[in-house]
Every structure is written in structure tokens, then in C-alpha cells.
Amino acid sequence: MEKITFTTTINAPKEKIWKTLWEDATYRKWTAVFSEGSRAVSDWKEGSKVHFLNENNDGMYSIIDKCVTNECMHFKHLGNIKNGQEQPQDETTENWSGSMENYNLTETQNGTQLNVEMDIIAEYKDYFTEKFPLALEKVKELSE
């Protein structure tokens, strides 16, 4: 697995960016870049599960490995969801289960830096390299 990083500076306080990232209405807007109808189901507390779902109720489930409000949200991805149901591990999910996706906010003189670092397997690298900058542009647009 490879680690890739995406960074943007947003002219907004980190509290505003945090809300943009994790509140339902804005989460759906910036993640639509990946899949129209995207949503997340969680209480957003450290140790809780998150279901990342598309409009067909398919997606993946993860656990919130670390959460410090207005500072960081780290996900540990575990497996797939089909028709709203968590699926048992299989050969495909074993390749990426345990991978991390980390969001970190840092205030700077020029605004707030949003840094996203994720573990990625080769078959998804091109997709996320194309889509993540577009998603971060949407976060920036919604936050400023």
C-alpha cells in the first residue's frame, strides 16, 4: 500500500471547515465528486463506526480511529457494505482493510491548511489522484 497526500489552504477558520467536512448537508455536497448521492452514517465520535454509502446503499464501513474536534479525523477502513449490510472480509477487502484516511486541520498565517493523507492500493490511485483535488476545491468553496 502507498500513502498519498492532498493539501489545500482555505480562507476560513478550522471550525467552519470542520462543519463543512462532517455535517450531513455539506458532506453530501463535497463527496458527490466521488459518487453522486454519497453520504455517511455515524455519530462522528472516536471509536464509532462510519458507513460511507452511495445512493444504492453500497459502500464501505470504517471505524473512527482518532477524532479531535476541529483538528483531526482519522478513519481506519474495514470492509464493504452491500445493500446497507456490512459484508464479511474477502480476498478483495483483505488487500485494503486496515488502511487509514486522515484529515488534519492546521491554522496558518494564510488561513487553515487541510491535509488529507490516505493509504491507497494501486488500482485506486489514479481515481483518487484525479478526484480528491476536486473534492477539496468543493470543501474550500463551501467553507469560504
From TrEMBL:
SUPFAM superfamilies: Bet v1-like. It comes from the Bacteria. Residues 11-123 form the Activator of Hsp90 ATPase homologue 1/2-like C-terminal domain. Belongs to the AHA1 family. This is ATPase.
